[in-house]
Amino acid sequence: MERTNPSSPSLLLADSCLAFNPVPGQRQRADGWTPETQACFIRALEAMGSVGQAAKVVGMGRRSAYRLRERPGSDSFAAAWDSALSMGRMRQFDYAMDRALNGVTTVRILRGGAIDVTGGPDMDVVRAAIREDAAPLKATKDTF
To answer: What is the mean pLDDT of the chain?
Structure first.
């Protein structure tokens, strides 16, 4: 019977359009870009839509992530990166549109203990959503 590591990238991203072949390591480092760290980075990128934030979640740096992407043998990882980034940006756009259309509720406690509840669209989010480019971006150093 073959034993599998439950945290291997193939299992972390199983049944996902983000499945990829991990970038081969040049050296084995406990604090480096292990296959598990790469898979967690792709998941975080899908959730957040930001390379810097996703790298921070896995304890790595943004520049380090771009260097990993440029290594030989990273084609599969780069494709998963592009897909995850696009999905993350769409998720953030959907969230922004929800706040723009359905509004937000603000509760303030005034002097004397009075409570003021206001609601309405978050116009900052509306403006940001309108500025957002509709064309999908490729992940390059120039786009971030």
So the answer is: 81
